[in-house]
TrEMBL record:
This is Cytochrome c oxidase assembly factor 3. It comes from Varroa destructor (Honeybee mite). Required for assembly of cytochrome c oxidase (complex IV). Belongs to the COA3 family. The chain crosses the membrane at residues 64-81. It is found in: Mitochondrion membrane. It is a single-pass membrane protein.
């Protein structure tokens, strides 16, 4: 049984050294590891996966918020352009 970190773009900083080396894998079946250490590793692995899931959820929400704000700004811009065109059209009607 290998306990390996989930290496991804967000998590790589935690598991990679400054030289880009990845932490070595631990073979639990070959090396002597106490049950307390195994339990601790499982707890840390679960906490890390929860943290990554929370960060991914936050990233997704941020994208939806940015998309909503971008659409809102584009709508205001389109409304402004449309209202300026209508004012110009009304000025031409008044002149004739």
């Amino acid at each position: 049984m290998y306990i390996t970190p989930n290496i991804g773009p967000m998590v790589c900083r935690a598991y990679c050294s400054s030289r880009g080396e990845i932490m070595p894998k631990v073979d639990v079946s070959k090396e002597y590891v106490q049950s307390a250490q195994l339990n601790y590793m499982k707890i840390l692995e679960k906490e890390n996966s929860d943290r990554v899931a929370k960060l991914l959820k936050t990233r997704s929400r941020n994208r939806y918020t940015a998309l909503g704000l971008g659409i809102f700004v584009i709508c205001i811009y389109a409304y402004s352009i449309n209202s300026v065109k209508q004012e110009h059209f009304l000025d031409e009607l008044d002149e004739s």
